[in-house]
Amino acid sequence: MSSVNDIRSAYLGFYQKNGHEIVASSPLVPRNDPTLMFTNAGMVQFKDYFTGRSAAPYPRATTSQKCVRAGGKHNDLDNVGYTARHHTFFEMLGNFSFGDYFKERAIELAWTLVTKEFGLAKDKLCVTVYHDDEEAFGLWKKIAGLSEDKIIRIATSDNFWQMGDTGPCGPCSEIFFDHGDHIPGGPPGSPNEDGDRFIEIWNLVFMQFEQIAPGNRVPLPRPSIDTGMGLERVAAVMQGVHDNYDIDLFKALIRASVEATGVPAEGANRASHRIIADHLRATSFLIADGVLPSNEGRGYVLRRIMRRAMRHAHLLGAADPLMWRLVPALIREMGQAYPELLRAEALITETLRLEEIRFRRTLARGLTLLDDATGSLTSGATLDGETAFKLYDTYGFPLDLTQDALRARGIAVDTDAFQTAMQRQKAEARANWSGSGDTATETVWFSLRDKLGATEFLGYSAEAAEGQVL
Ligand code: ATP
Ligand code: MG
Ligand code: MG
Ligand code: MG
């Protein structure tokens, strides 16, 4: 059986053998794009080469890129633990051509990799093409020998990639693995919702146009290639399991969580262990790349991920902070490929420990409040915004944590009323400050307050200090 670490090396080795430079993953906080919250694809670090803003130092590259999709445009947070194929943090394997080879060679290499190097059965694979991309359709037929019913034309934006409103763009082809019809379908929220039979493993982007303005698209003089393959998904296929959480890497992390809590990963507790394992990776890698929990921006996304995991640790009955105790297992699995984890081990451990100590001060009481408020509600009901806001403001429950806590019971949250309560509290705080006449001080105060959180800044009791203001 190939381990995740073997598969990563095999991918990079294959493309290196085929003339690609192995380039290290860039950090999760993008250096070259202030509009992007987290690096969410392999191409991010190469953007300027694709747009032509700077010259690529090599014509071809290959990477295993750390990605987080838990904020901004790509947000998979609500899928984690509920689908077999989504993580908040994952590794994207990719190969890139900067104006060098194009569609034909990209398809040739990809097909050789999946069927020869990785040994996947051809009859389990199918591909998609953008509906008018006749060239790709013909190439899949010729190179892969796929029958026409295995080359599916798709007309939606899923198969047309754009960097932004302007800039490079082009059609994509995606490779899917068919896990077979023994996987029963299921209703929304079930493990087999949306696409768990046919799993998308690889996306090949053919950058062949430049969008100059809306409605004005011209061919690029030197088209480029950008691909992204989910390492955990291909590992599941290669290890003969359906579910990403059953691959060697996740099994080791879940084992650590089971050992630390003494609770087996069965029944309702299975999802908790999976979420803990997933969020352990996301939080540790984010901290290693310099993000710390806070009440705004990236730091607040980190805090939300941490606290979601910590609620699950609590559900498992953990009597003491749990997450920090799992860091050694993560380092054992991933420290060799990502030495930054080792360098940041002390910071990761302390940050996780302190955040969990802090959240545990209010977590149990917040959950009691939530139970009291929803005890009489049944599936299809909505929790009022005032209670959700109180949980947020007084007990440190991010809105999405409350939503996640109620999801299994089919209860929604009145998010409009939540926002109204938030605005009202901000307005009240402002009103209490009016009349000093010192607008400069007020401006500074309000910006600090927004940054640090109202109650923290006012130095209330430990309980109130858990409140946050975005
Ligand atoms: P999906 O439709 O399954 O959400 P996607 O089309 O959003 O995937 P792409 O943006 O094409 O994904 O990313 C390239 C590859 O990265 C995908 O083919 C998949 O293998 C992997 N990938 C994407 N999102 C995730 C995730 N949240 N967790 C794990 N792997 C992912
Ligand atoms: Mg997606
Ligand atoms: Mg997709
Ligand atoms: Mg895709």
TrEMBL record:
Binds 1 zinc ion per subunit. The keyword Amino-acid biosynthesis does not apply. Keywords: Aminoacyl-tRNA synthetase, ATP-binding, Cytoplasm, Ligase, Metal-binding, Nucleotide-binding, Protein biosynthesis, RNA-binding, tRNA-binding, Zinc. It catalyses: tRNA(Ala) + L-alanine + ATP = L-alanyl-tRNA(Ala) + AMP + diphosphate. Its EC number is 6.1.1.7. It is found in: Cytoplasm. Residues 2-470 form the Alanyl-transfer RNA synthetases family profile domain. It is an enzyme of class 6 (ligase). Its main location: cytoplasm. One of its GO terms (molecular function) is alanine-tRNA ligase activity. Its cofactor is Zn(2+). The keyword Cell wall biogenesis/degradation does not apply. It comes from the Bacteria. Catalyzes the attachment of alanine to tRNA(Ala) in a two-step reaction: alanine is first activated by ATP to form Ala-AMP and then transferred to the acceptor end of tRNA(Ala). Also edits incorrectly charged Ser-tRNA(Ala) and Gly-tRNA(Ala) via its editing domain. Consists of three domains; the N-terminal catalytic domain, the editing domain and the C-terminal C-Ala domain. The editing domain removes incorrectly charged amino acids, while the C-Ala domain, along with tRNA(Ala), serves as a bridge to cooperatively bring together the editing and aminoacylation centers thus stimulating deacylation of misacylated tRNAs. Belongs to the class-II aminoacyl-tRNA synthetase family. This is Alanine--tRNA ligase. It comes from Kaistia terrae. The chain holds residues 1 to 470 of 883 of the full protein.
